[in-house]
Amino acid sequence: MSETTVPVTASPVTTAPVTSASAAASSRTAVAEAAPTRGRRARAVLRGVQVLLALFFGIASATPKLIAHPTAAEAFDKIGWGSAGMYTIGALELAGAVALLVPVLQSLAATALSGLMVGAFVVQLSVFDGENAATPLILMIPLVLIAWARRDRNAELVAWLRRQR
After folding, report:
1. How far is CA 146 from CA 47, 53, 110, 113, in A?
2. Could you give phi then psi for residue 21, rounded to 5 degrees?
């Protein structure tokens, strides 16, 4: 077998940007179509997080307080708030869980539940020696995100309240 060599000549390659109207239009269309899709996905994910938080606050957190489960009663006795404090916190958590699912109340509910989580964090640190102090902090992250992302609903709520007068 004999080797064949092919001479290669270097030729300068120049590139010029293509600026046709159709290329620019298709580029804008692709960007315009991608943005709403990302926005829809983000809203869907946020809505899913809201549903999960509502389930957590309504079932796992509020229910034991509202049915006076022995562990909840014991914890509130240790805090010194007794059954009145337990039922109050349970009712606030349940109301917040329901409000997380009502579009006009979402931001307000997330803000209020964040406030409850600040209180829970302080109680965990001061009364229970920080045993479960990370839990309220972890829950506050998505709550603050929801409050911020749904903040436009606050204007709707205020407008509705003004119409009710």
Report:
1. 9, 10, 6, 11
2. -65, -35
Distance CA 74, CA 68 (A): 9
Q: Digits of tens for pLDDT over the chain (165 positions)? A: 555 555 555 545 555 454 555 554 454 554 445 567 888 999 999 999 999 999 999 999 999 999 999 999 999 999 999 999 999 999 999 999 999 999 999 999 999 999 999 999 999 999 999 989 999 999 999 999 999 999 999 999 999 999 998
Nearest to 86 by CA among 99, 76, 95: 76
**Which pTM value belongs to this model?**
0.76
Length of the chain counted residue by residue:
165
CA distance 130 to 82: 20
The span from the CA of 1 to the CA of 153, in Å, is 79
CA gap 58, 46 in Å, rounded: 18
List helix spans (H) across the chain.
Answer: 21-55, 63-66, 70-79, 82-99, 106-126, 134-149, 152-164
